[in-house]
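Subject: for your reference before the review

Hello V.,

The reviewers asked for a structural picture of the protein, and I figured it would be easier to keep everything in one thread rather than splitting it across files. Below is the amino acid sequence we used in the manuscript, unchanged from the supplementary table.
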Amino acid sequence: MQWCMSTVPATQEAEAIYLVSRMDGPVAERAKQEPFHVVTPLLESWALSQVAGMPIFLKCENVQPSGSFKIRGIGHFCQEMAKKGCRHLVCSSGGNAGIAAAYAARKLGIPATVVLPESTSLQVVQRLQGEGAEVQLTGKVWDEANLRAQELAKRDGWVNVSPFDHPLICVAKSLGAKTVAARALECMHVCEIHSEVVEDAEAVSAVQQFLDDERMLVEPACGAALAAIYSGLLGRLQAKGCLPPSLTSVVVIVCGGNNINSRELQVLKTHLGQV
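And here is what came back from the structure prediction:
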């Protein structure tokens, strides 16, 4: 797993919440305009701050309606496609992006098909079906599921929702993809980004520690970012001169928790020799 830090400052954003119960007439039109994501809390973590020796803040994207940050870009993309007359959304995803697409489709009153690798957990499949999406299981990895989604998107009125590689979805990475998104690669040459590898065992250990510290269960993809704090990586990067010694605080994006439950966490720990 890979964890990245950018020293480019974040900009303030305007966000809004809009809840709808019916998808017809003027309500449907407003659903195409108002964002589907919510304003998530930014909380200081006492436990992580103690580990890092500086204030650590948590941007809790795991409390989004779809369970992850993916609803931000994907919700916007789906709204734009609805304005252009999309009649069916299709998405290939290992979970979070597909759930975001299904959630947006339900709010927009548009059918959705989500194509997943055959290894996808029953928990995620049931969540997608609960959002009203048709689920297809294809291939062993995301790349194979994505080929199927691209084929489906050739149908008249169907639109492919990329999990991460589209300008409207904004340069998010997937830990399960074989290749990096083109825009993400471009940003490596524009922004000051330090990429560090986090072992699977470290990510899973961070998930357990974070559950104990903050009473929130997140998936290993999020554990990869948390492991950067728990493992002391911040201090090592400062010692190497990659980060300024005057660094005063850090924000960790708690990206989601759809692909995890207590049983799955125990399976992962057992597989990695953690008891």
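For the response letter, the relevant points are probably these. Residues 1-23 have pLDDT under 50 and may be disordered. The beta strands are 2-6, 42-44, 56-60, 88-92, 112-116, 134-137, 158-161, 193-197, 250-254.

Happy to draft the paragraph if you're swamped.

O.
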